[in-house]
Amino acid sequence: MTTKKKTTHKTHKTHKAKAHEKKSQHVSDKISTTSLTENIAVLAVAFLVIGLIVGSLISYGAFMMNGPVEPIITDEQGANLGASAAEVDALKLKVEEYVNTNMLPPEVTFAINGVDQSDEGVFEFSYTITQAGEVVEEGEIHSTKTKLIIGAVVDLDEEIEPLTPPAGAEVEKLEVAEAELFIWGYCPPGVPALDAYADAAAELASVANLKVVLFHDGHGPYETQQNKIQAAIQQLEPEKYWGYAKDFYEDVYPICVQSKSVECDLEESTKLMEKVGIDADAVLALVESEGDALYAADVQRAAEVGVSSSPSLVINGTKLDSFNRTADGFKTEICSGFINAPEACGIELSAVETKSTGSC
């Protein structure tokens, strides 16, 4: 790790100017390249991040004037030993988890790209924030080993109440509830959500109208192909689809997300279809003849309900602002869409969430 010297006031002013320049360019660039609907989401995130950066800069200056809140580690000659590589990696993960959990909505992801350490015992993290797979902000944030310097000096070990999201549109109740999970075929947080959703669907598919909408292929042709395969299975063998969806996370995803090849996706998907009793030849024939149309219909459906990130959940035509990504969480959301919940809604499912933070 490169040690960065920050011993003069001039250095801190340079960081402030850099962050301000990035902040100023960000909003105008996004407005010129996105639709009106996307602008609203991007601007909301932009202003949140701008506040984050400005608060960080103000607090960093005040923090440095008052001196570090924890001792600097030195050797016998007084040289700063700083933190080890392992300590830096642990702190990086801790800051990422804290910001993502407590400071940003689920559809927005904060990630640290690099770390510099000063003689004052302060770390500077360069970061990116993404929404729907697109970078919406880049900048720097500061921390000591235990304190995040952002808006105020925040104790990273202190538990706080999660931010309460604004109330969303009310879901209309129907005689037969309808649920749609929107994902990309190989989206890292979307595929674990599919795994949990399939568990809930296995219990509720006979009493509710359930679907998976694979609406984007940002990872390339192998994802395009998977999107079409899952759309075709749902059309030809909807009952068996949930077995495929459940096992995709363990049988196909970990293999083909590494190779990122169409060949791997085809081979492993065929194996999985055969495993759960799906006619792979019929599915692939439908992909060949109607795959483009099936995929286009899913893209159009996402546009109709205002979905732009994976995973997203729509109940009875209303997109939820947030939802619990466990099997039991999906069951609860689906069952909330009934006028009179069926007996199957009383079944208890797993409340353990497969790691699926953030979104594509």
TrEMBL record:
Signal peptide: none annotated. The keyword Glycosyltransferase does not apply. The keyword Transmembrane helix applies. Residues 1-21 have a biased composition (Basic residues). The chain crosses the membrane at residues 40-63. SUPFAM superfamilies: Thioredoxin-like. Residues 1-27 are annotated as: Disordered. Keywords: Membrane, Transmembrane, Transmembrane helix. Coiled coil: none annotated. This is Thioredoxin-like fold domain-containing protein.
